[in-house]
Design goal:
This protein is mainly alpha-helical. The chain has one domain. The protein contains nine helices and three strands. The protein has a three-stranded antiparallel β-sheet with strand order 1-2-3, with helices on one face. Strand 2 and strand 3 form a beta hairpin. Helix 1 runs antiparallel to helix 8. It starts with 19 loop residues before the first helix and ends with a helix.
């Protein structure tokens, strides 16, 4: 899929000197969102390749690729959620001259939609990052006395138990589209700021 465009958020000749470095840093973080979506796409493609591997790839290796792809998708989704929050709550606050030009309500709406699409993000991260430890304590994590095992319960549905609840994530193109949609909307909130900085004239 073709990914979205990152708005050029670069300091202008009118930018207060004490905000120049912060605006450049903010711009780098916006590109970090782009790379998070790109990484999720890479994880999805690895997973899909593992489901139908080339004949030169042993099935035992392809099975491992499938789990590597799932793990990448889960961790990148968690990192993406953190990036969205930190851009709004930390990075943007260091750039008051830009913050007034950003559509903050759109930022909030995009973050809220990500949580609505993927309500298990945080639990999935913990279940994946501490899988071995969690599986050793089914009494704490497995629902209804089951084993605390991570699995693909249905086709393309990653399932992991955490604190007595089964958490899931669809490793699918539809999930990728939803992630890209959220990030595209989040970035669009910076278009007005980017246009004004360009109008003022960018620093070298």
């Amino acid at each position: 899929m073709e990914l979205f465009k990152v708005p050029l958020l670069w300091p202008s000749i009118a930018t207060p000197q004490n905000e120049v470095a912060s605006i450049r840093n903010l711009y780098a973080h916006l590109w970090g969102l782009y790379y998070s979506v790109e990484a999720w796409q890479a994880g999805l493609l690895l997973y899909q390749t593992a489901n139908d591997p080339p004949v030169s790839v042993p099935l035992s290796i392809a099975r491992r690729w499938r789990w590597i792809g799932c793990n990448e998708c889960i961790l990148e989704l968690y990192h993406l959620r953190c990036r969205l929050e930190k851009i709004q709550s930390v990075q943007l606050r260091k750039c008051p001259s830009v913050r007034t030009l950003v559509d903050v309500s759109t930022l909030r709406a995009a973050r809220k939609r990500l949580d609505e699409y993927f309500p298990d993000i945080e639990y999935l991260r913990h279940a994946t990052a501490h899988k071995g430890e969690n599986e050793a304590h089914p009494e704490e994590h497995a629902p209804d006395g089951q084993y605390a095992l991570t699995r693909l319960q249905e086709p393309d549905k990653y399932t992991a138990p955490y604190r007595g609840r089964l958490c899931t994530l669809d490793i699918t193109y539809d999930s990728l589209q939803r992630i890209a949609e959220v990030v595209s909307d989040f970035l669009r909130a910076f278009n007005g700021a980017a246009a004004e900085l360009e109008r003022q004239g960018h620093l070298e």
